[in-house]
Design brief:
Blueprint (H helix, E strand, L loop, with lengths): L1 H25 L3 E2 L3 E5 L3 E7 L3 E11 L2 E8 L18 E7 L10 E5 L2 E7 L15
Parallel strand pairs: 1-6
Antiparallel strand pairs: 2-3, 3-8, 4-5, 5-6, 7-8
């Protein structure tokens, strides 16, 4: 009778391990993309590393002073192969920035090339530095 009990315990533990593994596989791996940001008198430019991301899997949103980048990478498996084991999952990228009122978020320009997203946000005209003429007295 004790053999039967230990077998039942082992089966339950195995079932829990299988359920835990399935839950881990369904979880999304979220990564924060690395960025470089350069600001000058006329604009700010942001470069974000998004390897394996296509234009269709990329979303850039601007709302209430926040700029959000969300993207999903795709790991391609040739149709002639059947994946038996994978330790590399397609990551989900997400990062949010606060954008100053000095920048005109209605004129954001975005491009994606070779896994690098380039965003350019111009300064508002009234926020650009200007030279003040001095009158003679």
């Amino acid at each position: 009778m004790s053999d039967y009990t230990s077998t039942q315990i082992a089966e339950r533990e195995q079932g829990a391990a299988v359920r835990q593994r399935a839950a881990e596989e369904n979880r999304r791996q979220t990564l924060t993309p690395s960025v470089d940001i350069v600001e000058d008198r006329h604009k700010v430019t942001l470069w974000a590393d998004l390897p394996g991301v296509s234009k269709e899997q990329l979303e850039v949103k601007v709302h209430d002073g926040s700029l959000t980048i969300e993207a999903e990478s795709v790991v391609h498996v040739p149709a002639s192969l059947q994946l038996a084991h994978s330790e590399v999952r397609a990551p989900y990228f997400s990062r949010t920035f606060t954008v100053s009122d000095e920048f005109d978020t209605s004129k954001v320009e975005a491009s994606l090339k070779n896994g690098v997203l380039t965003l350019t946000i111009p300064r508002r005209e009234e926020a650009k530095p200007r030279r003040v003429e001095i009158a003679s007295a």
